[in-house]
Amino acid sequence: MNPEIIGGVYIVTAAMFIYGLKRLGSPATAVGGNLISSIAMLIAVIVTMLSLEIVDYRWIAVAMVLGSIIGAVTARRVEMTGMPEMVALFNGSGGIASLLVGWAALYSPGGGFGGLSAFTMVTIVLSILIGGVTFTGSLVAWAKLSERLGSGAGAFAGQQFVSLLVLAALVVCSVVMVILPGWTGPMVSAVILLSLVLGVLAVIPIGGADMPVVISLLNSYSGLAACAAGFAINNTILIVAGALVGAAGIILTNIMCRAMNRSLSHVLFSGFTATGAAT
Amino acid sequence: MDMVYLGFILMLSVFLGFELISKVPSTLHTPLMSGANAISGITIVGAILAAGADLGPWATWLGAIAVFFAMVNVVGGYMVTDRMLSMFKKKDNSPKEKS
């Protein structure tokens, strides 16, 4: 199928995502809204599979079947009370997927390592960074909500210092990776590792009661990661849907904060301030 | 030029995302979060392209693993949202029947 037709179908699916998200916001239409957005996802997947770029279906088929089975079984089995932590796990799963897409984009035609434009490199670094933080952050949120990890556990002396140090190292490695093509190989490993560590450090000092807000925030991050991955591989539907989720997630996080009498900045930065105020 | 065009798309989508979520009843917060999370599984499109476009063995492997995780996100996310909403609908109907 030629790229123009695929682009046209992407426009239709983007409209369906927008309409679906709109309908999810009101109780009477929410079920239909979710259905519309799931059909849009199905269309986007099918039309991508028909793209001329796709030459090998074997691994895609295997991975899709396995992923569908695991997703469906866990979604069926989870107790109603366990929903928020399940959302956290799925969200983390989306985050690691965006990290991997960003990583794989390093091997785009155009010369692989060193052959990519600075702009593409920046978006690759962003998708790896945000995806990694989303992944481990979501896992910690899941562990706290399901009480595998104590609600207040994890905050240690000097936490703030260590978090800032990791953040600084991450920034340095990212910059080196973008401006020195020869260093891309080792630096990409460092960025992946540091972003995974940062995800843990950012969420671990936050109290269990704040976890729903944190999951909503991480959900927004996973949208941003998908958006960055979209820039890395020049794909409009990833950019549109990712940005939609990113923006909607931030607003929703803010609304949830207000409903729980918390300030957004408090939840956002408690990993970097002295006390987590675990409640 | 391409960059500018993609940037415009990003800007419009962000504004749209802000506008879509304004007055949401608090009972819908969790399903909405879950539904939005399923949409962020759109990264599966990128994963399929990475896995199937013959970019070499390493990229194919990364892509295939990404397809797996994104698929868990998509299928699980939509199903969990649907389950939450179906429970919610029952709750909404019962008081009406009583009154």
Automatic annotation (TrEMBL), chain B:
It is an enzyme of class 7 (translocase). InterPro entries: NADP_transhyd_a_C. Residues 8-90 form the NAD(P) transhydrogenase alpha subunit C-terminal domain. The chain crosses the membrane at residues 6-22, 34-52, 58-81. One of its GO terms (cellular component) is plasma membrane. Its EC number is 7.1.1.1. GO terms for molecular function: NADP binding; oxidoreductase activity; proton-translocating NAD(P)+ transhydrogenase activity. GO terms for biological process: NADPH regeneration. It catalyses: NAD(+) + NADPH + H(+)(in) = NADH + NADP(+) + H(+)(out). It is a multi-pass membrane protein. It holds the Pfam family PNTB_4TM. Keywords: Cell inner membrane, Cell membrane, Membrane, NAD, NADP, Oxidoreductase, Translocase, Transmembrane, Transmembrane helix. The transhydrogenation between NADH and NADP is coupled to respiration and ATP hydrolysis and functions as a proton pump across the membrane. This is proton-translocating NAD(P)(+) transhydrogenase. The gene is pntA.
